[in-house]
TrEMBL record:
<feature type="domain" description="Alpha-D-phosphohexomutase alpha/beta/alpha">
    <location>
        <begin position="254"/>
        <end position="360"/>
    </location>
</feature>
<keyword id="KW-0460">Magnesium</keyword>
<keyword id="KW-0413">Isomerase</keyword>
<feature type="domain" description="Alpha-D-phosphohexomutase alpha/beta/alpha">
    <location>
        <begin position="155"/>
        <end position="250"/>
    </location>
</feature>
<keyword id="KW-0479">Metal-binding</keyword>
<dbReference type="InterPro" id="IPR005845">
    <property type="entry name" value="A-D-PHexomutase_a/b/a-II"/>
</dbReference>
<dbReference type="InterPro" id="IPR016066">
    <property type="entry name" value="A-D-PHexomutase_CS"/>
</dbReference>
<comment type="similarity">
    <text>Belongs to the phosphohexose mutase family.</text>
</comment>
<dbReference type="Pfam" id="PF02879">
    <property type="entry name" value="PGM_PMM_II"/>
</dbReference>
<dbReference type="InterPro" id="IPR005846">
    <property type="entry name" value="A-D-PHexomutase_a/b/a-III"/>
</dbReference>
<feature type="domain" description="Alpha-D-phosphohexomutase alpha/beta/alpha">
    <location>
        <begin position="9"/>
        <end position="126"/>
    </location>
</feature>
<protein>
    <submittedName>
        <fullName>Phosphomannomutase/phosphoglucomutase</fullName>
    </submittedName>
</protein>
<dbReference type="InterPro" id="IPR005843">
    <property type="entry name" value="A-D-PHexomutase_C"/>
</dbReference>
<dbReference type="InterPro" id="IPR005844">
    <property type="entry name" value="A-D-PHexomutase_a/b/a-I"/>
</dbReference>
<keyword id="KW-0597">Phosphoprotein</keyword>
<dbReference type="Pfam" id="PF00408">
    <property type="entry name" value="PGM_PMM_IV"/>
</dbReference>
<dbReference type="Pfam" id="PF02878">
    <property type="entry name" value="PGM_PMM_I"/>
</dbReference>
Amino acid sequence: MTHQFHRTLLREYDVRGIVGDTLTEEDARWLGRTFGTRVRREGGTKVAVGYDGRHSSPAMEAALVDGLNAAGIDALRIGLGPTPMLYYAVHALEADGGMMITGSHNPPDYNGFKMMLGTGPFYGDDIRALGEMAAAGDVETGHGTNENVDIEDQFVERLLEDAPAKEFRVAWDCGNGAAGRVVEKLTARLPGQHVLLYTDIDGDFPNHHPDPTEEKNLEDLRKVVKDKRLDFGLAFDGDGDRIGAIDAKGRIVWGDQLLMILAEDVLKDVPGSTIIADVKASQALFDHVAQRGGKPLMWKTGHSLVKAKMKETGSPLAGEMSGHIFFKHRYYGYDDALYAAIRLMRALSRAGVSLTDLKGAMPNLINTPELRFEVDEDRKFAVIEEVRARLKADGAHMSEIDGVRVNTDDGWWLLRASNTQNVLVARAEAKSESSLKALMTMINDQLEASGLARVDT
């Protein structure tokens, strides 16, 4: 008995595919069987399982549990909720691993899986090895049990442990994603005024797509903050592990800017510590951390990759431009947008300033958001290699941590391949509009040299 996964399914730091096409329930069953085998061979006996609000998720969860049980693993089924609640369950229930069924911020017809082995990330070669195990039929056989575990209220209590007493007036936009029910319970316990948007969990995402990195998805939040004269607004992605924010003036506070605020607060308690940010983050963040006595470290994009680097370096805080924020300080070291919201309130309370004031005081650099454009799945990594080779030949000053990040006298530009979608991601930051235009020209020249269309900015 063997199984072959679609060649695009097993990604660098999670599993992601189109339901009924590159991802089926049989795939879910085999993921459970192979991952369960790995856990069992490491001496484990139980795995926590959760799922998001996508229509395909309950059936995927049932198939996954079948696979775990067939490998002799007991399943602790926490049900519907955000990804960080699954991560929390692994810690709180002392499970030997965790599997979350989620399509995150991808379109409604996608779904996927995020995994933990023990309390650490499971990614890269470990994920690819599951494909080799399935193809060889290299799996254990057994009869695991099932247990439904309601951990939602316990999770909310843990989030509240670090909430400040200060009253804030906040809008929360859940985008009909999996965080909705937890946000309802959380805000009911927080002081201040809380306006909730789209907390009904709905896999059709009828109001807007749950991706806070896309400015168009923050328009409803912006309007509510302005109309009700709130202090700020928060938004979450489909599975609740990424955060977006709007200040009282309606300005977006991007992921790297949130990390600037959170880093300053953490460095008060852990002076001199390493703060990690991904290659898409502003140079202003790295400079800010250094100015506050911290050690800034640029690293690869990807939640599993960042978590592994945190463990290696002992970093208390890390973040990504996309809104993944990871707290080891006072927490568990995984990305949790709901906990990040609580810590933002704590940081603002301790600093005695508003988010609007902090946003206004940030360096006036001019940058693009993440510019994403489709490219064939089989071509995306090859394009990056072509660009890298040309830049090396030209003697460019660049970082090759993740794709290419090219530094110039006036700023920097980035081009990297997404590990979760068939897209390339570009970003540029400069000191003036003319310099930014010049950087974008450099990006477009490289794209054209590889036979791709220019990026429309």
